[in-house]
Design a protein that fits this description.
about 30% helix; about 850 residues; eight-stranded mixed beta sheet; alpha/beta; 33 strands
Length: about 850
């Protein structure tokens, strides 16, 4: 559901509402008013200071039938080989890829009546479509057929007079039209007589008359069948006429044959306005933007719509154009300037054309139950400075100004990040979202962002690149839209040990459409929870479980009895292998591509160097893990089995160093940052381990890795540790880490100002942007803005800061909170930082 709030609503049929709200659900307007309860799950669009109107409607144009800027090849609007062609259908000519359609949407025109030109006396059948381009015309149709195009005046007599054919005079125009209608009447009569004869025949057969002969049906005639609908008033007669005398001829013929008449153009309608009003004949007036290029336009005046309207004529304003339909609102504004009442002019491009076309039950006004075709204007629609800010068609946001929140800059992302990591101020604060598995974003939130930025049609799935936390793929278009400065380089396998390939559709518990790897094989439990298997093999014991209604997987601990199976060092090393040639080739290809095809800083996670990472200890990728795999037992072992832990770390470090050497040989210094560890050393209230335990068990191996990297590469080293770790930060710095993440400022003793003051010149703070536990999901947009500003002002001065959320962004973040988070950062990220 979508709620457009705090706005001025031009309902068209029920007045103007101030501070109004419109609720949209399932493509329809659900409710409109001033005191509406907004559902908690609604996407709220604050349109304060804006004006919302129904989508504009052009009652007469030729978009798609005379495609704009394409040329003769697609000019299908006039079949000028026969003056009577009622059987022709615009449906069969409309080109859905006409480049004018997007321009119409950008101008707020969401519905048009389009069809044949006026080269023939009877040109064929109109079609009413919505202007969102589709691959199939059928998917655009609102009404078909939507009237019969007929024409009097100069055009048909010129076309056929030049061929020395009838009609070449106005007498000929009228005669051909009347004759075609008479022939259609005769056709109707023949079929009606046939139906009577058939009924009589059936009676005779039923009474036992075996000599009765069935009647012969008349031969079908498509021209007559089409006109029969007009004569039965099943289809409107839409007669092109500029001059007053041609309009009167049209009225005369319509009355003779009892046609449902609309006058098209009515350029001299001002001369017979009272007659039109008395006979209740609606008109589509225009085009207003046209010169007196032929004699029958001699009586043209911009006052025409206003004069007819004041006389009581129902007037819709039309453009008679292709791409110039985008000037429909300006045409109406000009009519207002020349005397048309503003309220009537608004109706002339909304409800009146809807009524004249025959689609007012669907479009033309803002009323509950109608299609949610809505336009948000920056100001009054008749003000030439007003722009269209958003357009909804069938409840889908299809137009929004194509603005990127990424500001222009001479410094590219790679240089920006590397300058900040050297503790100098770049042009603006670097930004990471999705660069790693600890600075990522849940797939549901990625889908939400892609919809907010209109990067995908609704329902387009997002790839799950890390099933454990259900992280979504942050593709390059979203990276560019958000101004993100890093791009990820990770291994081919995820936490459950299978490759991210062979994508298949899946749906999360919250209904988000996603794509998952082919070995993402989940089996539901009786309680609705889902089991995940190591390497995607359901024959092995499950290593993960997503609770019913959950958002990510919890790791299942598969600890063997340690008394029965005493731990061996090699058991806890099973998942740490020397890197294969195939993996090296993959990293080389990916690094080369990312470095040459983007300007982003490459953020790599080669794996294998996180000592005691609790997400890795249970080994969810192994089918039969041995050793110490229980999380509690692992922490206890730091005290009870320190020698064992030390030996595991020592062997792991040797393997890790060999792998890093091989990886560096193939990727070189294309990588800017490498993740070394994601081991958590802190809880919400304090460290898990003492500085002494860290120095004895962890620091020696961290130091070895960092020393090799700093001696042999230009990489910067990244460590992730949640919680309250301030007493350990000096030890992290001594171990050689360049970057600390996520800077959990909500934990005890993690005050941003103190951290920056004490350590800001020694280590880069990567994170600390917004609290994802409390503020982002549950705060107000104002609270989010305050926290983002406060943290930027604290961490950014002097460089040594990369803005990122404090750990991964979770699902179900209110859209207005995401917008506040992102927009505030963009507003305050430029150096010098605003104070």
């Amino acid at each position: 559901m979508i709620a457009i709030t705090n706005t001025t609503i031009y309902t068209i049929t029920q007045g103007i509402l101030s501070h109004g709200t419109i609720l949209i659900e399932d493509g329809k307007i659900k409710q409109v008013g001033t005191n509406i309860q907004i559902p908690s799950d609604a996407e709220v669009i604050d349109a304060t200071g804006k004006i919302v109107m129904p989508g504009l409607i052009d009652a007469h144009c030729h978009t798609g039938v005379f495609p704009d800027g394409i040329g003769w090849e697609y000019s299908d609007g006039n079949e000028m080989t026969d003056p009577v062609t009622p059987h022709l259908r615009a449906l069969d000519a409309l080109h859905p890829e006409d480049p004018a359609f997007p321009e119409l949407l950008q101008a707020g025109v969401t519905t048009i009546l389009t069809g044949p030109g006026s080269g023939n006396i009877i040109g064929g059948q109109w079609i009413c479509v919505k202007t969102v381009p589709k691959s199939s015309v059928e998917d655009m149709i609102l009404l078909e057929p939507a009237g019969m195009k007929m024409a009097l005046g100069e055009n048909p007599r010129r076309v056929y007079g030049n061929q020395h054919k009838m009609p070449s005079t106005r007498m000929g125009n009228a005669a051909i039209l009347r004759n075609a209608l008479v022939e259609a009447q005769n056709y109707i009569n023949k079929w009606e007589q046939y139906q009577r004869d058939l009924a009589e025949y059936e009676k005779k057969v039923q009474s036992g008359n075996s000599d009765a002969k069935p009647p012969v049906p008349p031969e079908r005639n498509l021209k007559h069948e089409a006109l029969a609908k007009v004569l039965r008033r099943e289809m409107k007669a839409r007669i092109h006429a500029h001059r007053a005398d041609d309009m009167l001829t049209a009225i005369r013929i319509a009355e003779e044959f009892n046609l449902d008449l609309t006058l098209e153009h009515a350029t001299e309608g001002h001369k017979i306005a009272n007659i039109l009003a008395e006979k209740k004949i609606p008109v589509t007036a225009g085009p207003i933007f046209i010169s007196r290029m032929k004699y029958e336009l001699k009586g043209k005046t911009h006052k025409n719509p206003g004069i007819m309207s004041k006389a009581g004529v129902k007037v819709a304003i039309q453009t008679d154009e292709m791409s110039a339909v985008q000037y429909l609102s300006i045409s109406a504004a000009l009519a207002v300037r020349e005397g048309m009442p503003e309220e009537e002019a608004l109706k002339a491009i909304t409800i009146y054309p809807a009524e004249i076309i025959g689609v007012a039950d669907r479009v033309g006004s803002i009323e509950a139950g109608k299609d949610a075709d809505l336009v948000i204007f920056s100001g009054h629609p008749f003000d030439y400075k007003t722009i269209v800010e958003k357009v909804f068609v069938d409840g889908q946001l299809v137009i929004q100004p194509a603005k990127r929140i990424k500001p222009k800059s001479k410094m590219n992302s790679r240089a920006r990040l590397e300058l900040s990591l050297s503790h100098r101020e770049p042009d603006r604060v670097p930004f990471d979202l999705g660069g790693s598995s600890v600075t990522g974003i849940h797939v549901s939130a990625v889908y939400q962002l892609r919809q907010l930025f209109h990067l995908d049609p609704p329902g387009t799935p997002v790839k799950v690149i890390e099933p454990f936390m259900m992280l979504g793929e942050v593709k390059m278009d979203l990276i560019e839209a958000l101004g993100i400065d890093v791009i990820t380089l990770r291994g081919q396998k995820n936490s459950f040990g299978f490759r991210n390939e062979g994508w298949k559709p899946w749906t999360t518990f919250d209904g988000t459409p996603v794509l998952v790897p082919e070995k993402f094989n989940t089996i539901p439990e009786a309680d609705g929870s889902l089991l995940m298997y190591p390497q995607g093999d359901p024959s092995a014991p499950a290593s993960g479980i997503m609770p019913a209604g959950g958002y990510y997987f919890d790791i299942i601990v598969r600890q063997k009895n340690l008394e029965q199976y005493p731990p061996r060092v090699e058991d806890n090393l099973e998942e740490f292998d020397e890197i294969s040639d195939a993996e090296l080739d993959y990293f080389k290809r990916e690094a080369d591509f990312l470095y040459t095809q983007t300007d982003k800083a490459i953020f790599a996670n080669f794996g294998g160097t996180a000592f005691g990472d609790i997400a890795k200890v249970p080994a969810p990728a192994l089918k039969d893990p041995k050793g110490i795999r229980d999380i509690s037992e692992w922490y206890i072992s730091l005290v009870t089995r320190p020698d064992y832990i030390y030996q595991v770390f020592e062997r792991q470090c040797e393997i890790g160093l060999k792998n890093l050497q091989k990886i560096y040989e193939v990727v070189g210094n294309k990588v800017s940052v490498v993740t070394l560890t994601g081991t958590d050393f802190g809880s919400q209230k304090g460290p898990f381990v003492s500085p002494k335990t860290y120095r004895n068990l962890f620091q020696p191996f961290h130091r070895r890795l960092n020393e090799w990297i700093h001696k042999n590469t230009r990489w910067k080293t990244f460590m992730h540790t949640c919680g309250s770790v301030r007493p350990l930060i000096p030890e992290f710095i001594k171990a050689g880490f360049d970057i600390l993440n996520p800077v959990q400022t909500s934990a005890a003793d993690m005050d941003p100002q103190t951290l920056k003051k004490d350590y800001g010149d020694q280590i880069t703070f990567w994170g600390g942007g917004i609290d994802t536990q409390h503020t982002l999901p549950y705060g107000t947009p104002a609270q989010i803005r305050d926290e983002v500003i406060r943290n930027i002002r604290t961490f950014a001065p002097g460089g040594g800061f990369v803005f990122a959320a404090i750990h991964n962004i979770q699902p179900n973040i209110p859209p207005e909170n995401l917008k506040s988070f992102l927009n505030t950062f963009q507003e305050f990220r430029n150096y010098p930082i605003k104070t």
